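Pasting as-is:
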Amino acid sequence: MDMAILREKYMKLFRGIFIFLFILLFLSLNSANAVKIRDLAYIEGLRGNKLIGYGLVVGLNGTGDKQGTEFTIQSLTNMLRKNGILVSPDDVKVKNVAAVMVTADLPPFPRKGMRIDVLVSSIGDATSLQGGTLLLTPLKGADGKIYAVAQGPLSIGGFSAGGAGGEKVQKNHLNAGKIPDGAIIEREIPYNFSNTSRITFSLRNSDFTTTNKVAEKINSFIGNSIAFPMDAVNVTVDIPDEYRNNPVRFVSLIENLDVTPEIPAKIVIDERTGTVVVGENVRISTLAISHGNLTIEINSKFKISQPSPFSKKGETVVVPETKTSIKEEKGHLILVEGGVSIKELVRALNAIGVTTRDLITIFQAIKAAGALHAELEII
């Protein structure tokens, strides 16, 4: 009797472990495609800004702009004049200076003294910016105001070397470089996030179903209807009273929630590179596909025709002979059932030995037949 009770207890224990593992497996499968809200959307109003400036790079080893580049010479003489050195542009003949454009991204919540990376690109005919140093360059926003200043040595991540015989070895691009932490922020963009009572999450890819899922996930997590999908992009969220004094913590909790986004049924084709990307929700109706390659081969040979021996008027000529052959492979007719998944579609296409270039033609033909239930985008 005791053994029967013990056996029943073990059976209950094993049954409980099995149910737990099954639930764990089910949840892991459901969350396999889950994405955090912070990766799906951004908070409206919290974004970066583009900065741009014009400057000079000096210290080049004879690889700067040529002497006929007037704007570089004018910029150099103006810079010298500001430093109390008067010189005529006609007297300036240097090859170690290059005119450049400097760009940077101003992050959200910029503070004075923060450092940001800058990208330096040559706009003249300099052959290399290797070993150069960017002089003090103001960086302006779209409003014309200065938000940062940049200066420092460039890192181009490459090199160029050559010999006296004209041989040259080059690695990477030499006319653009980067200065890590090369700019210092001098102006702040005012934004009072602490007094915010409502925030708006904007999806990076518009979709009505995804915005509805985001709102439902937030409401389920908070236990109250505070999130409202406004359209296919925006979801407004009212900050609860308990988080009104600490909106940063509230946003941190919301943006770490997992949501499974809706992926549109789309096929993207890049004909330049022969790249085909097929979304997992692509479906096709029942159809038959036949594929065969047509190859036309033209071979040209040249033969020399000589005159008969001891001929007085004959001459040697070159006679071309052209042979054209056409070869057509046998088509393979396969049946693809309707509503198949992308995995089954790929398996069926691989069965007839199609190449990437062939895929482009096949998908266009399926679309023309009205059997492709997806958007076909050619870039």
